[in-house]
Amino acid sequence: MNRNLTLSILLVLLVVIISVLAYHRYFMMTTYDDSSDCLPPSAVNLAQELLPEVDIFLRMYSSGVNYYDGLLIPSLKYFWPGNLSIVVVLDGENQTDRKLGEVLRKQYPFPRVCFQGPANPKIYHGLGHQRMQRDFFYPERFTSKKYVGFIDTDTVFVTRVTRQLLFEEEKPVVIGVYGPAADPFWSESSEITAKIYKTKEVMKCMSYFPVIIKVEHIILLREYLEAIHAKSFDDIFKMYAYLPISQFSWMCQYIWMFHREEYKFYFNQRPTKGNLTWRGENNSPGRVNHTYYNNVLTPEQRTPKPRTSIHYRYTAQWKKVETLRRFLQIGLCFSGGFDVCVEFCSNVEKNSLQEGLFHFEGSDWRWDDRCLEEQRRHYAVVKTMYTDKTTQAIVRAGCQEVVNLTFAIKKVDL
Fold first, then answer.
1. Residues sharing a CB contact under 8 Å with residue 350, sequence separation 6 or more, in sequence order
2. Residue 26 lies in a domain
3. Does residue 169 share a domain with residue 72?
4. Any signal peptide, and if so, which residues (predicted)?
5. Which of 95, 201, 219, 322 would bridge with 193, disulfide CB 3.0–4.6 Å?
């Protein structure tokens, strides 16, 4: 009897040990794929690059290909001159994403396609959007260039892109936003940025595309946050990933604090319901006091700066094809269409202020009377780009395509 009892106890202990080992192996010792691999572009455009030192960076999923095909790509064709160096990053473990990568790399703008493993889902709480945000903080995995320029699949370019819109004095342009909080999300987001940096946030930077940042500075950002929190960057990210965060505001906060002289900053003040003199009404608790901007910003930094593009799905009535058509039409007319697409541009006023240059995700700059003069400066530069017949033909073809534009975005068969 004692022998049977002993055997039973040993059997129970064996089962417990096996269970513990199994749990340890599958739940505690699971290795996650955080690697990346890239495919080269299938074609090389030998035209002059507008930004030879920049890789445009697009993190997307196969489910977002409709926006890529229907919004981003047409606007790039119409408004981005010459060669475009772009990296598209997809999910490495998703076979549909891998099939999509093979399709995309063979089509304009012939991107280099990279695949990123899922890492440990606990870092981003298993949320796809937060996984994307984390990947933005590791650009050195996907590019060897000096800068990355972040965009989204629903970015719509609305004017001929010039280097002057993106770089001044060989420094990347940054357009930050301050003023009354747009909504509770952005109010809380600024509070999180303040907690991350242990100092008040200065600006919202989900306010323009492309967001061009030096790769080295993003690496230094991670190291700085690791130093002040005594945690790995992924552990820091995990603490806040389930909350309203803005990766671009984190980046702009860092470069404003430590590399201010290496960028060209402009600040778009959001006015207060008819009152253009903001005195701190509805300021986020995480944001610096309104007097900071009066004391620190130069007059030049308060000058309106035209943007290249809009975040289209944050535009009113974005699902209507007429809305998309109108944004593209106005941009084409100002970008040479008044001369080569006369009938197409007959309902566009030459002296009107172009909304897409000064209004991004509810941050409206059009209250500033200087916007029209800055728009004229921009299009004086653009006009010098439309002297050859090839460029004029591109504009003319764009006008015709926009007339026939539909929002029946093609389905990619994967």
1. 338
2. no
3. yes
4. 1-22
5. 201
